[in-house]
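Let's practice the habit of predicting before peeking. Look at the sequence and jot down your guess about where helices and strands might fall. Then scroll down.
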Amino acid sequence: MGNTADSAPEADRVIARLRDDILDGVREPGSRLVERELAEELGTSRVPVRDALKALAAEGLVTLRPRTWAVVREFTAGDESDFGEVREALEALAFRLAAQRRTEEGLALLRGDVDAELAAARAGDGVRARRAAADFHERVIELSGNAMLIEIGQLTGSRMRWFMSQHDDLVAMARQHEGLWEAIAQQDLAQLELRVAEHLRSSVEHLRAHAAAERGEPGA
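Done guessing? Here is the structure:
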């Protein structure tokens, strides 16, 4: 029991490092994650690495293999479609509630996410821009004020960040988020509904284009 408790903070560090590596593309889909190798690389023991891999498997980012290794998950077209359907339902509700229940403090925090994303996108910093984009979506869920929706958002947060990492047109995505912020600030539910639908449609198109480019298809 003592060993498990002592490894918890270290496991958190390993989880954060591996999660960032996966979402930032440092560790590509299908890459092997071997406990012994990761422990040596990260300067830790195998226990926190093992705990980290289990946690990341629960988040849907890695697939555990027998014995002492795992692989970075390769998302299929079916996975993307399933998540898209769930995301459509969750975000339609989250954005509407955020607009209805927004506060000046919440709007300021959300604007900060937009500004950070715009600055990073214009500077060509893909990692920072995509992280800020994911922060924006997580903030909207927080501003919804719905405890169950927030809990669901925490469960799906890593997958949302993975999908954000597939976007290549960083400035366009940031501008869409700016338009969503404006609709929330104005509590314009009709405009917000249209912008959310357009944002979701655009996200699907970006995802398909990115996948095509990864496959080296002509015109992608």
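How did you do? The chain is about 75% helix and 5% strand.
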